[in-house]
Each structure stands twice: as C-alpha cells, then as structure tokens.
Amino acid sequence: MPAVVSLALGGALLSASSASAAPGELVVTSPTAGQTTPTRDVTFSGTAVAGSTIIIHEDSQDGAVIARTNVPNSGAWSVDHEYAADAPVQQTAFVDGIVGLSGFDEPKTVAFNLPAAPAQLTVTSPTEGQYLASRTVTVSGTGIPTANIALVPSAGSPVTGILVDAAGNWTGNVTFPDDVDRAQSITVNQIVGAAGRGSVTVNVNLPATQTLVVETPQNGATTATRTVTFSGTGTAGSRVSLTGNFPFVQATVGDDGKWSVDVTFADDAATAQSVRLTQVTGGVGTGDVTVAFSLPAVETTPTTPVLDEPVITAPKDGATVTGPNVTFEGTGTPGSNILLVAVPTDELDEPAARAAEPADPEDPIVVGADGTWSVTLAVEPGDYTAVAQGFLLDADGEPVVDADGAPVVSDPSDPVEFTVTAAVAPIGTTPAAGQGGAGTAPVATTPTGQLAFTGADLAPAGIAAGLLALIGTAIMVVMARRRAHSA
C-alpha cells in the first residue's frame, strides 16, 4: 500500500511539472507590429490552446487589463477594446493568459498605432461673454462624428438630437425667454452611445427685450426748441432712463403704457445730439433705443455797436484859416465813418436852414486804425460852425442799423467855430466866378449855404433820408449848445 501511494503522488507531481512548462502555443495575429488600426475600436485576435484564457494588458504585464476572453475549441480567439478619444496614438499591448494551471510560456507584446483622435467637443459660436443680437441663439462647434449634442440653456428648454456630421461639425438653436435677465449661459453636452464625451459651458449676454418705443423726438428730426420732450410707450411701471449731454434723467411708464419727460439742453450744447434710452422692468432690461436728432441754433440778440463821440481837432475853435481849401481833422471810433457838417454861423438861427441836403460826396471819411480822420474841402470865405458825428457802414456800403432799424450813430461832437478868409490873389489876376479866390476849387454847398460832408455815397441806396436826419440832428445840437453858451 505505501508503494502505491508513493507512485500515485509521484505521478501527480510529474503531471504538475509538465503543466507549468506549457508549450508556446499563444499567437497574436491582430493587430500587427507597427500597424495603424482603422479605428480606435481595436480587435485583438489570434490562436491559443482551446480552453485557455487570453488576458490583454496596457503596456506591460503590470499594466491595467483592458480585455479578457476564453479560447473556444477551435483555438481561434478574438476580443475588442475601444480606446478613448483622448488616448495616445502610439499604443503597446501585452498579451498573456492562463493555460492549465499556469501562464503561457511565451506571452506577446505588440506595438501599434491608433488613428488620430477624433475632434473633441468645441463651441465656436457664441464666444465667451459675447453680447448677442437675439434671444434665439445659434450655437455651433465641432465634435466626434455621429455623436449627439444637447444644448442646455440656463433658462428655457434644452434642445437635444443634434448630430455631429461626418466632418465633425454641428449646429443648433436655443431660445431664451423674454423675461429673464441678460446674463445667461449655455451648456453643450456631447454623448457617444450612452456615455458623455465632453461638456462645455459658454456665458453670454442677451439683448434687452424691446418693449420700449420712443415716439418723440424722431431720428433725424430738428426740434423746435432746446427744451426737448422725450415721449413714447413701454411696459407699465417700468423706469425709462435717458443718457446724453445733460444730467441723468428718468421717467416712469404709466398704467396706460405711456411715458414722457422734458430735457433742456444748454445754450452751448452742440446742435447734433444722440440720446440713449433704456427701460428696466423688475430689474430686467426691457428696452434699449438710441435717438439721433438736431437742436435749433441758439438765437442771439445782435449787440449794437457803441461809437465814441467824435472830436474835431482842426480847425481849432475860434481859429481863422485861409481858404479856399480847409483841412478838417479829428478823432473817432476806428473803422467808423464821419458825417461832417459845416454851417454858416449866421444861419444857425434860421429854421429853414435845418433841412440840409448833402453836397456831392468825395472820398469816404473813415476813421483810421489810430483813431484819427482827416478831409480837405474847398470852402468859401465866411464864419462857420462845424460838428461831426460818427456812423457805420457794412461791407455793402449800407449804414448799419440797430434792432429798431435806425442807423447806428455816435453823439455829435462839440461844435467848432472858425473863420475862412480868402487867399490874397496875385497882382493882375481876377478870381473866377463861383470861386472863393484865384485858383480855388468850386465850393460844395447846400441850397441854404450849409456844407455837409459824409464821405459816403448816398446816391445808389435808399439811405439818404436817414443820414439827412443825422445832419438835421447835428444842426439842432449845435444850436442848443450855442444858445446855452450865449446864456
């Protein structure tokens, strides 16, 4: 009996030793060394001892097990493993297993390549933080071909069933409700089979929901005054804010849906204006309108120029000058014209002498930049009283008038009395008729004997009457001063 037991144990030991040294029957036919697989769903196949188990590891025997299968009676085995989209292109698989009570004596290592990773999930539109023109948003991007895309807005209903096409592109639309705030987000989920393959969230800014209508002023209009009435319609109870070249202004939309507010623009505000109007309803923007219009020009009251009272500096008061030519000099407002009136002194008290008519004018009597003026005239012998008055002419030679249409004139100068004596004629000569002496020029006088020199051309314009009135005024002033002096 002991001998039989011993023999039995020995047979068992011999059998175990033979199993631990299994023959090299493991063969890997796919993938082959250096191959690039058609897809990332890789089929591992080969042959081995029937009933054995095939185990496939990543990289080495110590790597993670990625696939396992039993070898059928035919000895041909096959097993699939799908590599993740982000798995490296270069891969190594270590293939071993269990045959009998031990492993294969010749495990296999196969190095191969996966195809390039398919497009990962991206969102190309809208961009992060973008201000959108509509609350219906077109969302587009790239992903894994045949994958499903789901759009999940932060407010509103999700949109599913969007397929990534063969080129890796996808697009879809999502709509936000009108009553939500402008700051929102869209989450994009990618699904392959039943597994999620990426998720991207994009923050966006929605446009204001437009219930605000601006009726006045209208775009491109010119307002009647610089106090502008802004009015229109909106959501009852909302606040309408105005931002422009003026202090901050708000209006409240009434229960009838109408609003109105007046804004006064400063006189120095530009005529071209642009005002932004925004409406807020319960903390949510519900309107944003910009109106461009023009203000009327500021009406300014013309300033009536003030002329200095002229002064006659020559002839001097009480002087005697030798004719026939007398040079009158004086001062006045630079750029103004001078109306010079010389009246025979003995005619000042005669009422008929007041209606003077000017003589034919010579060159204009204009006050120079230094404030002086001068004119030389032929005057008959006699006693004269002269007075000067300043007035203005415009670029067309017309008198400048004030707001009432009256010529702008200065006060008359103080009167100057002087005497003109005839020049002594050489022996043997006789003065010509109508001259003050030999060689003198004709004397320009009014029908009453007065001399009126404006230095301005009165003939072509209807201004003679106004300037003649000035002459009459000057004469009356001279008379009044003369009487006061005599008293």
What does this molecule look like?
The chain has helices spanning 2-19, 464-486, and strands spanning 27-30, 41-47, 53-58, 65-70, 76-82, 90-98, 108-113, 122-125, 130-131, 136-142, 148-153, 159-163, 169-175, 183-192, 195-205, 213-216, 227-233, 239-244, 246-252, 258-264, 272-281, 284-294, 311-314, 319-322, 325-331, 337-344, 372-378, 382-391, 416-421, 451-453. The chain has 487 residues and is mainly β. The chain folds into 4 domains: 20-113, Immunoglobulins (Immunoglobulin-like, Sandwich), CATH 2.60.40.10; 122-205, Immunoglobulin-like, CATH 2.60.40; 213-294, Immunoglobulin-like (Sandwich); 311-486, Immunoglobulins (Immunoglobulin-like), CATH 2.60.40. The protein has a 5-stranded mixed beta sheet, with no helix packed on it. Strand 14 (183-192) and strand 15 form a beta hairpin. The termini are far apart.
Describe this structure in a few short sentences.
With 487 residues, the chain is mainly β. It has four domains: 20-113, Sandwich (Immunoglobulin-like), CATH 2.60.40; 122-205, Sandwich (Immunoglobulin-like); 213-294, Immunoglobulins (Immunoglobulin-like, Sandwich), CATH 2.60.40; 311-486, Immunoglobulin-like.
